[in-house]
Automatic annotation (TrEMBL):
This is TOD1/MUCI70 glycosyltransferase-like domain-containing protein. It comes from the Eukaryota. It comes from Acacia crassicarpa. PANTHER family: ALKALINE CERAMIDASE-RELATED, HEXOSYLTRANSFERASE MUCI70-RELATED. Pfam families: TOD1_MUCI70.
């Protein structure tokens, strides 16, 4: 018992002198087996001092070896914990730093640098010469082309509220509408019309091309497949024009840069009648190019009125170029005089606008515009009256200065500059629906659609002066007028025929001697010559022609 107790006490002393450093991890299986082996050997040789001392030495060596291994593993664990702590500290420090905000994914506008000439630019006063009255162009402060291109937004402008706009496709076509409409634009009910005027985050509305699988394919206003593919590849700027009924000649733009010729899609929409004439003159061939214009022939026109058909490319260009970002739409009677990038910078980007149109040069009020259309025979008077009365019931009032900053209710709709984002596309869709339901006079329906949308959101609408519009487009004569002018000029250029010979002077009067008396027995005869019965009167000769 004494030997056993002494061996136990010796083991306790060894444990006190060489304590085992415990870690969070358990000792390995090999270390535990060595401990068991040491204790058994110690019990067997407990009565032999030499054996006991030997076992103690071996045990001490084993413990030192195990201690070194555990310290190595513990140091790895400590290093891991320290690394985790360092990483957490870095994350905490990073989160507390005031990092710069991320780059915006939307275009929010810009201002020109201080001192820029365009910041202080003002329109000159009207000419003092009273004889020079009427509409005319005025100066516009454009940026140089390279600066305008550099300022082109990399991101689209925000579309307030409306984020997703889709379009109704009906097959078979429903005809539930109370009045108006067409097979091309559909027959929306008045309830659907009211719904489409209420802006929501996601909307599905009528916007032309209601039949067929894709705009331009069996929808009316059909186009060749290669033209549809070409328009889908337009991803930047589009300039669109249109001629229907062979009413105008193709006007080629001027002052267009090489950069624009490479990057801008110039689309000229014509019908088959216009195509036939253009081919007969030799201007249009199989290349489908006239200058910078890509000529797109449309077939199966949805309307017999070419003016109404022209509203399709004018207002629904986003349906045919779904990947484009900006569009400038001009009437076929106009010639573009300024590079498209400079126009976009001046009237959209610098103004942080998504839709730009000029005011009418003379009229501000829809009621006055309607009466002017009736007086000029622009459309059936009863149809104009019906449309005005309908709008009056919806709240249309005459234009007053209380609407400022809106400067007019009547646009000059021959030019539209816009960004192709959902809210802008919604506006032109609704505008087209009014043209499809009522008269084709888009000046009458413009303010009704505009005011309904502006009462809900601000989609950055810009109405500029008519004289500014006349700075970058010039109006040409219609084709028939040009042909009459050419014919008149050709007549004037022919040599004049010689003037007719001067008439002979009248013969001298016959002198009758007073001494010669007629025989009273002879029958009276007129003594005048036959040529004297029809004498002409020549001014200045004192002859009155009286006998």
């Amino acid at each position: 018992m004494n030997g056993r107790s002494s061996s136990v006490s010796l083991g306790k002393q060894l444990l006190k002198r060489f304590p085992i450093i415990l870690t969070a991890r358990k000792l390995s299986k090999m270390v535990k087996e060595k401990e068991k082996f040491f204790m058994r050997s110690f019990m067997v040789t407990k009565r032999k001092r030499i054996g006991t001392l030997l076992l103690c030495a071996i045990g001490a060596a084993i413990f030192f070896w195990a201690l070194n291994n555990e310290q190595g593993e513990g140091s790895q664990q400590v290093n891991s914990v320290q690394n985790n702590n360092v990483n957490e500290s870095i994350v905490s420090l990073t989160s507390n730093l005031a990092l710069p905000p991320p780059l915006p994914s939307q275009f929010l506008g810009y201002t020109l640098p201080p001192g820029h000439p365009c910041n202080s630019f003002t329109l000159p006063p009207p000419p003092a010469d009273k004889k020079r009255t009427g509409p005319r162009p005025c100066p516009v402060c454009y940026l140089p082309l390279d600066e305008a291109i550099a300022l082109m937004p990399k991101f689209p402008s925000p579309s307030p509220v409306l984020q997703n706009l889709t379009f109704i496709h009906e097959e078979p076509l429903r005809r539930d509408g109370e009045f108006g409409g067409s097979d091309f634009g559909g027959y929306p009910t008045l309830k659907q019309r009211t719904y489409s005027h209420t802006i929501q985050p996601s909307m599905n509305i009528h916007c032309g091309f209601v039949r067929g699988t894709k705009p331009g394919r069996n929808t009316g206003f059909d186009m060749d497949e290669d033209d549809l593919v070409y328009m889908e590849q337009c991803t930047g700027v589009v300039v669109a024009s249109y001629i229907f009924g062979n009413f105008d000649d193709i006007n080629e733009p001027s002052n267009i840069s090489d950069y624009s010729k490479k990057t801008v899609c110039f689309l000229m929409f014509i019908d088959e009648e216009t195509e036939k004439y253009q081919r007969s003159t030799g201007r249009l061939d199989s290349s489908k190019k006239v200058g910078v214009w890509r000529v797109i022939v449309t077939r199966n026109p949805p309307y017999t009125d070419g003016r109404r058909t022209g509203k399709i490319p004018k207002l629904l260009i986003h349906r045919m170029t779904p990947n484009a970002r900006y569009a400038i739409c001009i009437d076929g009677k106009l010639e573009l005089l300024v590079d498209p990038y400079r126009i976009l910078e001046r009237f959209l980007w610098r103004k942080n606008a998504t839709f730009a149109i000029s005011r009418h040069y003379k009229r501000f009020d829809v009621f006055v515009e309607a009466e002017a259309n009736k007086a000029a025979g622009k459309y059936d008077n009863a149809s104009i009256d019906f449309q005005i009365e309908f709008y009056k019931k919806e709240g249309l009032t005459p234009y007053t200065e209380d609407k400022y900053p809106i400067i007019s209710d009547v646009p000059e709709g021959c030019v539209i500059v816009r960004e192709l984002i959902p809210i802008s596309n919604l506006f032109t869709c609704l505008w087209f629906n009014e043209v499809d339901r009522f008269t084709s006079r888009d000046q009458i329906s413009f303010s009704t659609v505009r005011d309904k949308l502006l009462s809900q959101v601000d989609f950055h609408f810009n109405m500029f002066q008519d004289c500014e519009r006349r700075n970058f487009v010039v109006q040409k004569y219609h084709r028939e007028v040009l042909e009459r002018i050419k014919a008149l000029n050709a007549t004037r250029s022919q040599p004049l025929s010689p003037p007719p010979p001067s008439p002979l002077p009248p013969p001298p009067p016959l002198l009758i001697s007073p001494h010669v008396m007629a025989d009273p027995q002879q029958q009276w005869k007129d003594w005048r010559l036959p040529s004297m019965y029809n004498r002409k009167v020549f001014p200045g000769n004192g002859d009155t022609g009286a006998t």
